[in-house]
Amino acid sequence: MTTIRPSRRIERAGVNSLRALLEEHDHIVHEVDGGSDYGEDLIVSLARDGRRTGHVVAIQVKSGKKYKRARGYAVPIDDHYDDWRGSRIPVLGVVYDLDLGSLFWVNLTEVLRRVKEPPTWVQIPAGSVLSSDTIREWSLLVEVYIDKAGVEAYSANTLAELPSRITESGKRGIVIYVWDVERDHFRSSAENAGIDLSSLGEQALGELLDGTFRPQPKEALAMQVDTGRQRTNLNLEIDENMAARARELIKRSTFVKELGWKPRSVASLILLYLHERFPMSEG
Description:
This protein has 10 helices and 11 strands. By secondary structure, it is α+β, with helices and mostly antiparallel strands. Strand 6 and strand 7 form a beta hairpin.
């Protein structure tokens, strides 16, 4: 008769808790069969608003007191260093605290790519909670990491081909992180005005470069809205050459002095342009 390991109930508690949380928020979970488990328990396709985002992660789940530390939790690396560090999709580590009934997470691939020698454990801060309150922020952080890692890999592997590819298309996408209420307002305002919203990123850069658009800091905008906690992304098209010129412009001390404040990024300037074009107070 088959003997059931006493630790199996504890191990399954973490996997079941994480799976239930992810599926409650419409993420698609594929559980890895025990016989094919080489360090990942779940493969997850991220989703938002009932649609897949195209982002996929692998997750290693641990449960029990032996993964708890004085200042948080820890995931053992064992012989997975090379696999997790070199993975084309990020491998996340999740520890389930049975006493608290809480999940804690870390991006193992991101951490391991920053170290030169294989560590024994990867730490998880006690504040890195994965719950219904934080899962939206969690998915956005993972998506940003995947997109950034993909751009860096593309740039490293195709540097010689990049100029011709840009010349052929001249366009690329830019992701602007906004509140849900902002995204819905911009979309409806552009539709009512008969404007293609995706083209406004390029228009913002054009006016920035020719001097007709000089943004005020976001705090100065009349935005009397309750943004809440819901964040999402807005995808716009921009000309790569214009984007490069805009990035150089916002680095110049003379431009920063002219504005009276320092912009964080080209994406943040485009968001300010959208607010000037479609003020929320008129929404």
